[in-house]
Fold this sequence. Notes:
There is one protein chain. This protein is an all-alpha fold. It has a domain at 15-68. It contains two helices and no strands. It has helices at residues 15-38, 42-68.
Amino acid sequence: MRRSGSEPVQARSPLRLRLGxxxxxxxxxxxxxxxxxxxxxxxxxxxxxxIGALAAIDAGLVIRRIRQGSRYQPGRNVxxxxxxxxxxxxx
Length: 91
């Protein structure tokens, strides 16, 4: 595969950090929902439960991306990087 020169040689994806933050959001959302429900605040319990659910969806998507690996390509017509821009030759 030919490099365009615009990408770093040792590029890394922050997916594991994003997964950790999403899991923190799931735990926080569940704990806060239980706390608000116990305190008699059903509206706030629903709000933080929804935040926890969104964090769980995000964690699932991140796990899917991690399992796909670094060489996953969405299709034949999608290049792995932005193609090098062609320059016109001056006459």
